[in-house]
Every structure is written in C-alpha cells, then in structure tokens.
Specification:
The complex is a heterodimer of chains A (639) and B (222). With 639 residues, chain A is an alpha+beta fold. Chain A folds into three domains: 125 residues, Jelly Rolls (Sandwich), CATH 2.60.120.10; 112 residues, CBS-domain (Roll), CATH 3.10.580.10; 322 residues, no CATH class. Chain A is built from 23 helices and 20 strands. Chain A has a four-stranded antiparallel β-sheet with strand order 1-8-3-6. In chain A, β4 and β5 form a beta hairpin. In chain A, 42% of the residues are buried. Chain B has nine helices and six strands, in the order ααβββαβαβαβαααα. In chain B, strands 4-3-2-1-5-6 form a six-stranded mixed β-sheet, with helices on both faces. In chain B, α3 links the parallel β3 and β4. The chains are: A alpha+beta (639), B alpha/beta (222). At the A-B interface, α1 and β1 of A face β3 and α8 of B. β1 of chain A pairs antiparallel with β3 of chain B.
C-alpha cells in the first residue's frame, strides 16, 4: 500500500546518519514506525535521571538543548538541530538519562522505537560503528566523568575508567590457569602441561604466582641438557612474574608484554604479585582477540639487516594503522603502538648507520626525535624532525667530533627518507650543523632562544622542547632538560611569550557555531585541523607542564594527565582537553588515510553531519583552555 | 421518508462501528482518545456529482502522531474532472493501486473505529464521505468531529467571525513546513501538526477535554 507519510519521513531520514547507511527496507521499516511529537519552546522531552522512554528522538524541526545538572548548575552540553539524534544511549544501555532534553525552540521530533533500531544494529555493522562513535563524542557529556566505547558496555566498565584505555574492551584471558607448587619436579610439570595441552605452567605459593615455565624454557634449559628433568621447577622458572589486574584492557596487556619483552601475563586479584592468582593471558590470546599483531612487526624489525626491510615494515605499519582506525581502536593505544614501531625503525636505522661508519662514535651521544614523533603523536608518515646531542669535548677535538656525528646523521636521515619519512623542508634534522651540537652548545642555544624571545625562537622552542631520546645516552638528555628549566627559571617572562604563542590560533568557531576556514592561499575554504585544533591543545599542554617544571612528559595526553594530578581543581577542563585531543588526532588520521595526505587540511564540504558535529564538540575545551592561559599569564595586555 | 430506505440489518462492519462509537469509554480521558486526522481529495466541490479520489488519514494519541497508525486509499473513478487533476495530481489511470468506493469506505470505517475525527474544514470531507455512504445505503458517520479551523478561531477571538482560515494560512501561522500539499495523506499530516500545536496552545488556558473541544465546533456534532 502506498504510504505518503512514511515516504515523507523516509525522505527526511535518509540524509542523516545513521539512517543514511540503512537499506531501503530497513529505513522504510523505521519510517513507518515513527511517532511524531510536537514540543513547545521551554518544554521538557525528558529529565536527567528519568527512566528512559521506549523511543529515542531525532529532531525534524527546531532545536533541542541537552542539559546536565551537576549540583545546582545546569550546563548546556549540546544543541541538537535538524537531523540530530538524542536520548539513545540510555535506551541501549538500560541506563537512566544522564541529561535533560529541553526545547530551545519549538520543535517537531520523530520518536523511533529502540527495538526496531536494536534489530538493525545487530545486522548492520556501519550503524553500530556510527553509534559507538557518537556515544563517545557528541552525545556524551564532556563534564561528566564517563565515557564508553562499547555499545552494550556494562555498568562496571562505564564507572571504572580513567586511564588511557578507558574506551577499550577488557582483555580475554584464561580463567583457569594450570599451576604447580615449587616442590614439583620439572618432569611432573611438563606432564601436567602436556595433559592440559598448554604451553605454560605457573608456579604458585599460597595461591600467589611466583614464577612461570613456558615451552621455551623447556626447550632452552631442559632439551639442551643444561638442567636435569628431575630437578625442581624453581630451578628453571622465570621469576618474578609480571602481574596485572583482572580489569586490564587488551591494549594495556599488549603494551605490558611489549615493554617487558614477555609473552605471558599473570592475572591476580589486585594486580600485584602478592595476591591470589586468577588467570593467565598469553600473547596468543591477544592475537586471537585482535587479529593484528604489532609485536610481530617489532620482532621483524629487530632482525632487519637492511633499509629495504625497514621500508617494508613501515608500509605494513600503515596497513596496521588503517586497520586500527577502521576498527575504532582507541587513539592512544594506536599512537603508542605506531610510535613504538617508528622508534624501533629509527633505532634500527641508527644501528645500521653506526655499522657503516669506519670508527666507533668518539663520545657518547643521543638521538632526539622532535615535534610529533617526540610527542609520540605521529601516526601518518610525515617529515622527519630530529636532532643530535653529543658529549662535550675539548675545543681542539670539537670540529672532528662534530664532523663524525654530522656524517653519521646524514646516513641516518637518508635511511629514514628511504623508509618514507621525508627530509624536513626546514632542515630541522641532525644532519644540519645547527642541530648537531655538543651538550654545551645546546645549553647555549636553548638559553638564547629562551632569553631573547622572538617569533622564530619561540617557534623553535615549541618544536625542540618536545624532544624524546630515541637512541643513546640518557644522561646527556637529562642535563639538557635541566639546563632548559634553569634558563626558564631565570627568565620567567619567557612563559608569557610561550603563552602568547599558544593563543595565536583562536578556537575555530565563529558566530552561529559556524566553522572558520582558511580564507586565502592554496587551502582556501579548507579547515586547518593541525594549527587550528591540534596545535592549540599541544601548545597549551606544553606551556602548562613547563610552568610546573614537569620534565619527563612529552606526550600531550600524558601532559594533561599530569596536569590533572597537579591541578585537581581543573580536572574537568583537562579531561575535556584529553577527549578532544583524542578525537581530533583520530580525525586527522582518518582524513589522512582517506585522502592519502597529511590530513592537515580538511574540506568542510566533504564532511557529513556527524563528522562536523564531532569536530564542533572539540572546540569548546580549546576555547576554555585558552581562556585559562590568558588569565594565568596575564596576557590580555600582551595580545 | 428516510426510514423506509433504511435497512434493518446493517453489514457487520457498520454495525460494529455504530456499537464501538456508542459504547466507547475512551472519551473521558484525553490521553486515551484516538484522533483520526483525515483529508480527502475529490474531483470537485459538488457533493452529488463529484467523487472522492483518495482518503488519507493519520492517528494521534497522547499528543503523538502515530505514523504506524495511518491510512491511505485511492478510489476507482467513474466520474472524472480533469480540471482538478492540476491540484491533486491523481489521474484517472494513475499508478496508484485503486479500489472501489465501497471497498474504500469499508476499510476506512474499520480504520476509523471509535476515534474522534479531526480535519480542516471537516464539514466538506464528512459530506463527501456521507454522500458516498448514502450510495451504499449507509451513514451518516456518527463519530465526534473537530475542525482545526474552528479550534483556531476559538483561540484567536479577534479573527473569530469574519474569516475562514485555509490550511495554508494555519501552516504559515504555525510555521509548519508544507510538504505534499494537496495529497490526502500529506494534508492530513499537516492538519495533524496544526492540531497538535492548537491543542498545546489551548491547554495553556483551558483544561483539555473532548467536550469543550467539540463545542468549538458549534455547527458540527449537532
């Protein structure tokens, strides 16, 4: 039967996500089950804390404000206009409404039964992804300490997340680990392993794990005849074991394994070695869970003998990145993995270059990654920015030493460029004599930048302050950091200059919540996500941590986390900054993958409604943190 | 005279309809009342010689338009007026699946159930339906009837006497985007929006109950 009304609703819904990805039949089913509601201005659709309705809503005409009341403050969290969905999360998660919805204008809403949507979610992966993404961004309240990635997350994971990996699934592990006592003989242990068909056995004492034996131990220590099979297990067990808590996420588990170069993690009740063993997780569990294995790439890297292999691995890393982004794996995890690999590639390039040099390095040195690689925020392959510091030498040996390191750096940067990290057009590379300096020279250089601030020197500071030692002597770098803090201490107005620099790019929203776009040049009408959204947050985090003399944090998210510790009163703002930064970084990466470029310039016309909303949501904290900087560094006069 | 033509035994669907409307207990609680907002497209304005081309309707309950509970039929034509094709776009042999007038009426009566009828210029649509019912020796419709034109007049006393408001006027007045104007279902939906906005406004100064609403409509429901 012809149904004009449903068709009209169909025509409206088909333009808006997630309805745009439904097939005709599904969308028609949704359309013909809509209830249309009219809401007068100021009237409430639902109240915070209320038990959810049977329906979620999409705005047909008008505007609905979402408000969150915290204590007595009512905060406007978001405005939904034509095509926006609201009131869905609580239905899907059987939770109460976290926000109130009130009509900011008189509005017509389409109410859609959640049961119809649930059926569709189960059969349509794209819809599922859209909803997960929207739950963790625009629909959620940025001031509330809750976020979630999984659509059907349970309350426990919702309440219990404040780490980097909050929005990631908890890892699967074997809850019934095979164990033996330390008095067990190696032979008995091997028999237990065989009969249970497992590759590892845990040695426990008072239910606490004290050691582990894996197939590898049997191969290396027993089959070789080094130890008799009649000895006790404690002779060959690896001890102590690395323990983690039951709530570890896959991402954390993977990083713990990478960091400790092990393949098994013990799960204990409270996560320490001194509590009851409750499970074991192997690398294999993770591979199975995730279908991707960066540690294989790291292993391949360690075996690499030439630059071609490095290039091959870098290309494979790009595929890995695409997969992670596609799977909506949390961006912090992704950037950790990618920067581990990038660093491993750099280390290998250095090792290969050192081998090519005729002589050993004359003195200790350190290879520094700068900028985004230094901050571990480099996801797409971009230009290389690096520098080298070497130990002070007597003046008469200086030139010779410097020449050695420049020639070493030339080899390294060349290899990196073959791998895919193009030469820096501004020559900010260790092969440039200006950035291949002794410790003394670096101290002098930084002091000059800090005490004679100019636009250029401030810019150099923003790049060089985010250095990260990739290879070489940590002592040199620590001395360098110390000298920077001393210079700043003796010339504190430098922070005000840095503050001024952090405010150069105001939040990218104009009146009526419109995007500001670049108005001239090659990228006219495009939105510069790097300088207008990412850099303001990066600059703010750097400035604020520097002013607290925090030394060992270079990563923007880690910096904000550190700031939360130091300034708990600004907890909410810094959390919002972290969220925004994650979203923006992912966004840029997605754009870069899509357009095969740096992802820096975004054509707003190419974005759909959901993407624009997501971006817009990120700008509020930028505005707020710039306000904070303006007040704290008394910059109103300086601007 | 009419009594002579009146059949003693009505078809079941008609008797059911009469019984349901007469015995319905829903009218006392506004939230329980089902409203059927309807519109007809016709070949013209002559009750005797023109015919309905299409009946479109959608239900409202508890301030919500229920798209699931909607109705749309197209009627086969013996009489045809090519002038009005320009307005409603329904041709004599268009693509829509068409049914006989009697079949359309049966389906409509079953759909109507014990609902309160809402339309814009209700008298016209009801006259069309009642004339059609008369052709199969049934009728008239006994459902309670409301007219958005009269409810609006009641709410805006300044304009009450001298003006007849068109659906276009009211849509403009209430800022309702007009889609599918001059299709029965499209107009029924617009009328439904007008009705929701009117009753919301009405609620501000009056308790919403069906008796008072019906009173706005002094010359219907007599």
């Amino acid at each position: 039967m012809k149904n004009t009304i449903s068709e009209r609703i169909f025509d409206f819904l088909k333009d808006f996500p997630p309805f745009d990805v439904l097939n005709k039949k599904q969308l028609f089913l949704v359309s013909s089950n809509v209830k249309v509601t009219y809401i007068e201005i100021g009237k409430t659709v639902f109240q915070q804390g209320e038990i959810p309705h049977e329906n979620f809503y999409i705005v047909k005409d008008g505007a609905i404000g979402l408000y969150r009341t915290i204590e007595s403050d009512e905060i406007l969290v978001d405005i939904c206009d034509e095509g926006d969905i609201f009131g869905l999360r609580p239905l899907v998660q059987n939770d109460h409404y976290l926000m109130s919805a009130k009509a900011n204008e008189e509005s017509i809403l389409y109410a859609i039964s959640v049961n119809i949507l649930k059926e569709i979610i189960e059969n349509n992966e794209k819809v599922n992804k859209f909803l997960i993404a929207s739950f963790s961004t625009n629909i959620k309240t940025p001031y509330a300490k809750n976020n979630n990635g999984k659509l059907f997350a349970n309350i426990e994971t919702l309440e219990d997340n404040n780490g980097n990996f909050s929005d990631f699934q908890t890892a699967e592990y074997s809850k019934d680990p095979v164990t033996c006592l330390k008095s067990t003989s190696i032979k008995e242990a091997a028999l237990i392993m065989s009969s249970n068909k497992v590759g590892s056995i845990l040695i426990v004492e008072d239910k606490n794990p004290i050691g582990i034996i894996t197939d590898k131990d049997l191969r290396l220590k027993i089959a070789t005849g080094f130890v008799s099979i009649n000895k006790k297990v404690i002779e060959i067990m690896s001890s102590p074991v690395i323990t983690v808590s039951e709530k570890i996420t896959t991402a954390e588990a993977q990083i713990a394994m990478l960091k400790n170069k092990i393949t098994h993690l013990c799960i204990t009740k409270d996560g320490t070695p001194n509590s009851e063993l409750t499970g074991i997780m192997s690398e294999h569990d993770i591979v199975v869970l995730q279908g991707n294995n960066p540690s294989v790439l790291i292993k391949e890297l360690k075996r690499a003998k030439d630059v071609e292999t490095l290039k091959y691995i870098r290309e494979k890393t790009s595929n890995l990145l695409n997969g992670y982004i596609e799977q909506k794996i949390p961006i912090v995890f992704v950037s950790n993995i990618i920067s581990e690999i990038t660093n491993a590639i750099t280390i290998k390039a250095i090792e290969l270059s050192l081998k090519e040099m005729k002589k050993q390095p004359p003195v200790k040195f350190g290879w520094l990654a700068l900028g985004s690689q230094g901050r571990k925020e480099q996801l797409l392959v971009t230009d290389q920015d690096n520098a080298l510091v070497f130990q002070n030498v007597p003046d008469e040996n200086h030139q010779e030493t410097k020449d050695y390191f420049i020639s070493l750096s030339e080899k390294i940067t060349k290899k990196l460029s073959i791998v895919g990290f193009e030469y820096c057009p501004a020559e900010m590379m260790a092969s440039n004599p200006d950035y291949c300096l002794s410790l003394k020279e670096w101290k002098h250089q930084f002091n000059k930048w800090i005490t004679i601030p100019s636009e250029k020197s401030i810019m150099m500071c923003t790049i060089f302050f985010d250095y990260n030692l990739i290879y070489g002597d940590l002592g040199l770098v620590n001395k360098m950091s110390k000298s920077i803090f001393n210079s700043i201490k003796s010339y504190e107005i430098f922070l005000n200059f840095l503050g001024k620099n952090a405010l150069i790019n105001p939040p990218p929203l104009g009146f009526f919540r419109q995007f500001l776009v670049e108005d001239d040049g090659e990228n006219k009408d495009q939105f510069d996500i790097k300088s207008r959204a990412l850099m303001p947050l990066i600059d703010a985090a750097r400035l604020l941590t520097l002013s607290h003399k925090v030394k060992d944090k270079n990563n923007t998210i880690e910096r904000f986390q550190k700031l939360i510790e130091i300034e708990p009163q600004n907890n909410d703002l810094y959390l919002m900054c972290i969220d925004s930064f994650k979203i923006l970084l992912r966004f840029r990466t997605e754009q870069g993958i899509k357009h095969k470029d740096s992802g820096r310039y975004i054509n707003l016309k190419s974005l759909n409604k959901a993407e624009k909303l997501k971006l817009k949501g990120c700008f509020k904290p930028i505005k707020d943190i710039q306000e904070l900087i303006k007040v704290r560094y008394n910059l109103s006069q300086m601007l | 005279m009419l009594g002579l033509f009146k059949r003693k035994n009505f078809p079941k669907y008609w008797q059911d309809y009469i019984d349901k409307v007469s015995n319905s207990e829903k009218y006392s609680n506004y939230e329980n009342i089902r409203f059927v907002v309807l519109d007809t497209e016709t070949t013209g304005f002559d009750y005797e010689n023109d015919r309905m081309l299409c009946i479109g309707a959608v239900a409202i309950q508890n301030n919500k338009i229920l798209v699931t509970d909607s109705f749309e039929v197209y009627i086969k034509q013996e009489v045809f007026n090519k002038e009005t094709v320009k307005i409603h776009g329904i041709r004599k042999n268009g693509d829509e699946i068409k049914i006989s007038e009697e079949e359309a009426l049966i389906q409509f009566i079953e759909y109507l159930d014990d609902a309160v009828i809402v339309a814009h210029h209700t008298a016209f649509d009801l006259n069309m339906i009642n004339t059609a019912l008369k052709r199969i020796n049934l009728g008239p419709i006994i459902s309670k009837q409301l007219d958005t034109n009269y409810i609006y007049k009641k709410l805006s006393p300044n304009n009450r006497y001298n003006k007849v408001f068109s659906l276009d006027d009211l849509c403009r007045r209430f800022n309702i985007t007009m889609h599918d104007r001059h299709t029965a279902s499209g107009d029924a939906l617009l009328t439904a929006f007008v009705f929701l906005k009117l009753t919301n406004q009405y609620k501000k100064n009056n308790a919403l109950n069906i008796q008072d609403l019906v009173k706005t409509n002094y010359h219907l429901n007599s």
